[in-house]
Design a protein that fits this description.
The complex is a heterodimer of chains A (116) and B (114). By secondary structure, chain A is an all-beta fold. Chain A is built from no helices and 11 strands. In chain A, strands 2, 4, 5, 6, 9, 10 and 11 form a 7-stranded mixed beta sheet that branches. A 4-stranded antiparallel beta sheet of chain A has the order 1-3-8-7, with no helix packed on it. In chain A, strand 4 and strand 5 form a beta hairpin. Chain A is globular. Chain A starts with a strand and ends with a strand. Chain B has 114 residues and is mainly β. In chain B, a hairpin with a 5-residue loop joins strand 10 and strand 11. Chain B is globular, with a radius of gyration of 14 Å. The chains are: A mainly beta (116), B mainly beta (114). At the A-B interface, strand 5, strand 9 and strand 10 of A face strand 5, strand 6, strand 10 and strand 11 of B.
Chain lengths: 116, 114
């Protein structure tokens, strides 16, 4: 079955630690996205990528980093510079790299990050 | 700046009653409009979308939405709510002029009472 997988489902971070959230898709989609979801704030875009080895900052990129070495993978690293990382993180993808912002985005099940 | 407003943070309806969730957007041109649903602790599932053409669009699970340009609205409706519809609903707006981004509303939480 085609879809988007995110792992782990729950992740704990200690102070000063970097952690990496995994996102994999087998939909052959060009574009991939990372969102952060906080209660009462909807979804906010962290980073997106339209093509391998290229990515763009979203509205809240500070304290985060990404890579896109393979079309199907778009991992997100939450660095120690992100002072309030506790949130629900959602990965998404869409088909056409030239229609980002126009096409349907398909979402993974999410990763909840908690700070110890 | 583009924005999406969902004025109702939380709505409670009785099972079998009709439902309307409001969404207003701030954007000059004709946007691409979406409604997503999210169950607790899960990702988002697309209910329906509007790109162009007929302003009344049908989606999954018996939902429909109507695009009203004059009111900058894209309200979601369902004639008879089922208990399984209890979830969080998000309206989203996208277009290439938005800088390749979707803008999401803050969501409306739906409770269904028997």
């Amino acid at each position: 079955d085609g879809g988007i997988t995110q792992s782990p489902k729950y992740l704990f971070r200690k102070e000063g630690q970097n952690v990496t959230l995994s996102c994999e898709q087998n939909l052959n989609h060009d574009a991939m996205y990372w969102y952060r979801q906080d209660p009462g704030q909807g979804l906010r875009l962290i980073y997106y990528s339209q093509i391998v080895n290229d990515f763009q900052k979203g509205d809240i990129a500070e304290g985060y980093s990404v890579s896109r070495e393979k079309k199907e993978s778009f991992p997100l690293t939450v660095t120690s510079a992100q002072k309030n990382p506790t949130a629900f993180y959602l990965c998404a993808s869409s088909i056409d790299r030239d229609r980002v912002g126009e096409e349907t985005q398909y979402f993974g099940p999410g990763t909840r990050l908690l700070v110890l | 700046a583009q924005s999406v407003t969902q004025p109702d943070i939380h709505i409670t309806v009785s099972e079998g009653a009709s439902l309307e969730l409001r969404c207003n957007y701030s954007y000059g041109a004709t946007p691409y409009l979406f409604w997503y649903v999210q169950s607790p602790g899960q990702g988002l599932q697309l209910l329906l979308k509007y790109f162009s053409g007929d302003t009344l669009v049908q989606g999954i699970k018996g939902f429909e939405a109507e695009f009203k340009r004059s009111q900058s609205s894209f309200n979601l409706r369902k004639p008879s709510v089922h208990w399984s519809d209890a979830a969080e609903y998000f309206c989203a707006v996208g277009a290439p002029e938005t800088g390749n981004q979707f803008y999401f509303g803050t969501g409306t939480s739906l409770t269904v009472i028997p």
